[in-house]
Design goal:
about 15% strand, Aspartate Aminotransferase, domain 2, 8-stranded mixed sheet, 2 domains, single chain, alpha/beta, about 40% helix, 16 strands, Aspartate Aminotransferase, domain 1
């Protein structure tokens, strides 16, 4: 039979057992304690609604005057965002996208031909395979190791590089491990001579200061770098659909020229959100502070309650997630299914994020505290009972 659709779409579309059980529980009317909630607009935060809506009512949005790199006023607002964090960054080094996912798509187009390879961390964001496949690019994984803290396995990274490797992705801080890139790691990454793609969407959400941390690669560099961020996490507004790429290092001007050609083909960033960007970024401070308070409070509770239990909270430095190691008497899938079936608690198993070993559960620290506290209590009770 003749193939109709691209092979890039040949993924398993069957729902996994956890999704099937969740749908069944919801049909039965069960009150699910969802410890996977990552949508800030559904997490009970108090948004400055009047200010955000007024920002979107800018009359300049009625005129279409596209700039492939993004409107200058919007890029200058991104420059100001970095200036407030102690970094002078000209708007000429910034290109706007509709999202970080689109930023990855543009960068894969820029750097790789079909069949080329991109190195990505493991464990990490579970969308890389799909984003790469859409560009006919392959991903190869390099591991992060945990020995009390998370770090890059540079020996494994070096072994993963082939003649077709075109870039190294770092997620800083990582999702879901919450680990930031360290200065010594950055020094070693630069020696590989490959472009570095740094996903920094959670960078503003550190749990504590650390002078050894590299919070962003947007500054001066002797390596070609692309730092990515956007409103989805910075302002807690994923529906606004605006992100950006900051290019730096050798050949960054040529890279931006190539990115401009790509962006000009799609022109996907909406005009209203670009004009609104300065006011949205200004208003984001109140949302960020709420998220910081909640994630820190939930993490502190998790650490306190898991201490001395059969479970262990792995060290996290920032972001919206925590990793809980549970007894290996069950597989991660059995843990997740058992908690949902018997305790009405929804968590994500570590294999969703490509953890190499068992048994880990990923919890969202963005979860409303009352739900998080009760959900964690049921998890720890189950661990005690099942052990």
């Amino acid at each position: 039979m003749m193939r109709v659709f691209s092979s890039r779409l040949q993924w398993d579309s069957q729902p996994n057992p956890l999704s099937l059980l969740l749908a069944e529980k919801r049909r039965s009317g069960a009150a699910i304690l969802d410890l996977t909630e990552s949508n800030p607009t559904r997490a009970g935060l108090d948004y400055p609604g009047d200010e955000l809506l007024a920002a979107l009512a800018d009359p300049r949005a009625l005129r279409y005057d596209p700039d492939p790199r993004g409107l200058l006023a919007a890029r200058e607002a991104v420059s100001e965002y970095y200036a407030q964090r102690g970094m002078e960054l000209p708007a000429s080094r910034i290109l706007l996208t509709a999202s970080t996912s689109e930023a990855y798509s543009y960068l894969f187009k820029l750097l790789a031909d079909p069949g080329d390879e991109i190195l990505v961390p493991r464990p990490s964001y579970p969308l890389f395979d799909y984003l790469a496949a859409m560009e006919s690019v392959s991903v190869r994984q390099y591991p992060l190791r945990h020995d009390g803290v998370w770090h890059i396995d540079f020996g494994a990274l070096a072994n993963a590089i082939t003649p077709r490797t075109r870039a190294i992705v770092v997620v800083n801080p990582n999702n879901p491990t919450g680990s930031y890139l360290k200065r010594s790691e950055w020094e070693r990454l630069r020696t590989f001579g490959l472009p570095i793609l740094s996903d920094e969407v959670f960078s503003d959400f550190a749990f504590a200061p650390d002078s050894d941390r590299v919070a962003t690669l947007a500054g001066p560099s002797d390596a070609l770098t692309f730092s990515m961020s956007g409103l989805s996490k910075i302002a807690g507004l994923p529906q606004m659909k605006l992100g950006w790429i900051v290019a730096g290092g050798p050949d960054h001007a040529a890279a931006l020229e190539g990115l401009e050609w790509i962006a000009d083909t799609f022109l996907s960033v909406a005009t209203p959100v670009q004009w609104a960007l300065p006011r949205i970024l200004e208003a984001s401070a109140t949302v960020q502070e709420q998220i910081r308070r909640r994630t820190r409070t939930n993490l502190e509770h998790l650490i306190e309650c898991s201490s001395g239990s059969a479970c262990r909270c792995l060290h996290a430095e920032g972001g919206w997630y925590a990793v809980l190691e549970v007894p290996r008497i069950r597989s991660e899938e059995e843990w997740a299914l058992g908690l949902l079936d018997a305790s009405d608690v929804l968590v994500q198993p570590g294999y969703f994020y490509d953890f190499e070993a068992e048994a880990f559960l990923v919890l969202s620290l963005l979860t409303p505290p009352t739900i998080f506290v009760e959900g964690l209590r049921r998890i720890l009770d189950s661990a005690l009972r099942w052990s």
